[in-house]
Amino acid sequence: MMDLNEKNISAAPEGGVLETPKRTLLQENWILFRKNSLAMAGLVIFVLFFLIAVAGVFLTSGKDPIFDPALVRLQEKLRPPLSKPNLETLKPEEIPPFGIYLFGTDDLGRDVFVRMLQGSWVSLTVGFVAVGIAVVIGVFLGGIAGYYGNKRIRLGHLLCPIFLGVGFAGLVSGKTVVGLVLLLLGLGAGTVIGSRGDSRASQRVPVGLSVLFLNLFSVDVLITGLVDIMLCFPSFFLILTVVALLPASIYNIMIIIGLTSWMGATRFVRAEFLSLREQDFVTAARALGLSSRRIIFRHMVPNAMAPVLVSATIGIATAILTEAGLSFLGFGVPPPHATWGNILSNGKNFIFDAPWLTFVPGFAILVVVLAFNLFGEGLRDVLNPKLRERH
Amino acid sequence: MLGARPMTSRNDLLLRVEDLHVFFHSDGEISRAVDGVSYDVRKGETVCLVGESGCGKTVSALAILGLIPQPPGEVTGERILFKGKNLLELDEEALQKIRGREISMIFQEPMTSLNPVFTVGDQIEEVIITHEGVDRAEAEQRAVELLIDVGIPSPEERVRDYPHNLSGGQRQRVMIAMALACGPEVVIADEPTTALDVTVQAQILHLFRELQDKKKMAVLHITHNLGVVAEIADRIYIMYAGVMVETGNGEQIFHDPSHPYTMGLLDALPNRSRKGQPLYSIPGAVPDPAHKPLGCPFHPRCPYVEESCRKEFPEMCDFGDRHFVRCPIINKQRKGS
Amino acid sequence: MLAFLGRSLIQKIITLFFVSVISFLIIHLAPGEPSQIDPMNPKFTQEVLERFRKEFHLDKPLYVQYLYFYRDLLTGKSVSWKDNRPVLVKIYERFLNSLPLFILGTLITWTLSFPVGIPAAIRRGGVYDRSTTFLAYLLISIPGFFFAYMLIIFVVTRFHVPVIGMETFGVSSKGWHFLMDRVWHLLIPSILGAAGGIAVLSRYVRNQMLEVENQDYVRTARAKGLSADQVHYKHALRNALLPFVTMFGLVLPGLIGGSVIIESIFSWPGMGRMAYEAILSRDYPVILTVNFVSAILVLIGTFISDLLYMVVDPRIRL
Which residue of C has its CA nearest to A386? Predict the structure, then answer.
């Protein structure tokens, strides 16, 4: 029999039992995550990208930026990367950083490196803001659908905002009398409903008003119906439609992408909440007298966040790709502001003469999106115990 | 009650596990789930492998059938002897011929151990067809007979049911039917009643006894429930932290427990004669398989601990009449030194 | 079971109604009118503009326009504002163009994803798994048009595969030669479309397979002495495939949605491009009809999904 003690030399001190160090869930997950080298690479690249974007916005924005991305030097157009500028023709402030055109110049002689710097901030914010909006909407709607799913919406609940809304619109468009009447009706309905919450009380209400208590459908049906409707619109098509119809601006693009991608998060959160709601810790919390709001936000949401986090990181990647796609089709951020998408789109016209105009931004997008995707998948592997190796 | 059976000769030896080690590698650590364990199973015997969760009993059983994935697992040992062959040396194909046919296994969780998309009839017939090559019709016939054997009413209809149409107890009976389909000589039952109600438990145990008598099988019953052990065991092996600490028959273990751990386990059982007194529990906790103490694995919790326990791994001591105890301290005490 | 399907159908019709209202509102509430495009054209005077507005009911309140529009849609009379041709005819033509692209792309995607994803799960962590994983991530992350251009440059300069349009100018319109030419033109765009699809789907296949392989019943199957093939391809796969059967129903909407970019790059006269051009020129009837058709496809797709799910999973027999 082999000497078992050999393998345990580093183990317990004599006479004692080595206590396994206590770790928090966050630390455990971090340790697991660290072992996935691809995901770590994704994280590192993301941090680098973030730093570059922040540096970029510092260096290139404002009236008199340190590096000017809009600086046109027609005499230097279409120079390849790492080429030296023709110093005789340039004024001192036109000399590119580091003394060379790091990534070459485009058809207007603008320094691609500086434009990439400017564009990095756009890509970063488009990703984060769009996904931020989507996640907030998704968690909110999904949480309500999951937790309050069975609460029925009554006729009064609907009529009140409808009247208020139409009345307000009426006031605004000048039909004062009608508008005022509707507003008052809406307020009235609101107070009636608000003051008598439960169905027992409705029996003491005059017959005419009791129609306001008619149960229509449940909250869950309303929200999933909303999701289904949104899903009927092909997403890129919808974004394209709205972006084409609204004035072009970076904020519009971010908001629209956010407003059209919350459906996934909603479904995830709803599904998680539906299963969490039945779990014992929720019943225990209720038995202890905690308010619904506290239960939802402090106890259930953290448990439901895992799939949302994963889809959020992948959503950032998708948002960046979508912005690039929109720029490609001509609907991106308007010139002269540079985004990686519009540098790439511009470059397709010179693809044989100046391939770096497509390569550089294309490659950059590829790397950043890849990083986010790897990071997201790494998160998914860590947060989903079902995918772990089984002992 | 204490399954007393006539002493049988060595020729009845079916399965012998000798010095089995199973390690798991992860995070740069080595988890020593099974650390040098040996046990025998004889024809028709009921052997109980007893211990707390995490002591390695299930892992050792899985290792017999070659069901431990070998990374991250690592299975080594002197040998696992089954009808003259060393199972540790067999390749996957040879092992497949033994699994389900000569050695079967029944698992703990009847709710998840059956495939939800196939009927229970399909799953039972599958074993028969795979190992005995008979045709569909005959397999179905035998499946119905098996369902009768395990006490499922209206078997002709149940055969076409899906697992989710059956209760937990019924699913476990189906698992038993599947295990017995090809008439194996050894059935490994891994906590087969833990997930079931107490009344169903009693029924299943009774069923086991009946079938054993009828089909002359040996059963390796893995459990942590001493009550069950007392009912059915011919031979008892007590495991702690991947190591065998005491073996004996029912009489010896329950009336003369000699390893401090066994003594602790029995003391922890609620006893009417100690009414009103606080329940005893063994102080301390089971060690992490990756960080086991030097020397005897039980020494940090042992009331009889001496200096040598902390340094040397104790040998198995013979208390006579096939009662073995891995504690030289107690051994010294008993033999009077 | 019929009750469930019936309810589901009604739900879908209601959803369709709301979709029609919302898409209508989006178009009309956006700033700018279609006739704004026309003033660019010097041929249009003020009276012509007025007549234009009257004819297309643009002077009536919104809900009347809504009724007019959908009446025309459902009777097939609605007409494109760009070239005066019936919308349904236009859609049908482009549909026929998009269809082969869609079918080929979907076929390639769904037939290749499983052989790619399943072995990766069975031999998790091995060389095959790691390399397919890396390739899949690469394909998912690359901007579509970037990849397209790389592919085009490579393929055009080396192999002379055509990358413009559906057919070569001047080739006869019948016979074997015609068929070969069409297929040749279909090749690169479909492969492009399929590449991304395979990357995504094969990952999903792998993950599903992994999840199933860890289940108790797979361990039981092994303990029964079944061969490795039986364990993986009979017991595990059958369970792992369940969600994909339902996913397949949802492939349908891709007919319209997916391909604006691919069609632009390859100058393929398909539905995606038509929709894009309609948006640019504010051709309301076309936009709304395409939207409506797309919504119908989505709803049919989910309906088929639900149906397939009931057929395939014995736990869901209502």
Answer: C211
- B315 inside 8 A of chain A by CB: no
Which structural domain, as residue segments, surrounds residue A364? 46-63+111-151+218-388
Residues from chain C that touch A328, judged by Cβ atoms under 8 A, are 145, 261, 264
Domain count of chain A? 1
DSSP state of C315: T
Kindly list the residues from chain C whose CB atom is less than 8 angstroms away from the CB atom of residue B131: 225
Distance in Å, alpha carbon of B292 to nearest chain A alpha carbon: 7
- Residue A245: inside a domain, yes or no? yes
Six token digits for residue C278:
């309609």
ipTM of the complex in this document: 0.83
Residues of B in contact with C223 (CB under 8 A): 65, 67, 99-100, 104-105, 107
Does any domain span residue A206?
Answer: no
**Tens digits of residue pLDDT in C144-198:** 778 887 777 777 777 766 667 666 666 666 677 777 777 777 887 888 888 888 8
CATH of the domain at A373: 1.10.3720.10
Region of residue B183 (phi > 0: left; psi between -120 and 50: alpha; otherwise: beta): left
Q: What is the pLDDT of residues C71-123, one digit of tens each?
A: 777 776 667 766 777 778 888 888 888 888 888 888 999 999 999 999 988 88
CB contact under 8 A, B291 and A20: yes
Return the number of CB contacts < 8 Å for A and C.
Answer: 124
In a domain, A125, yes or no: yes
Would an 8 Å CB–CB cutoff place B54 in contact with chain A? no
Distances (CA, A) of C109 to A288, C104, C117, C248: 53, 8, 12, 11
State pTM to two decimals. 0.78
Question: Sheet holding B13-26: strands in order across?
Answer: B29-42, B13-26, B73-82, B85-86
Domain membership flag for residue A193 = no
Give which of A374, A362, A310 is closest to C137, Cα–Cα.
A374
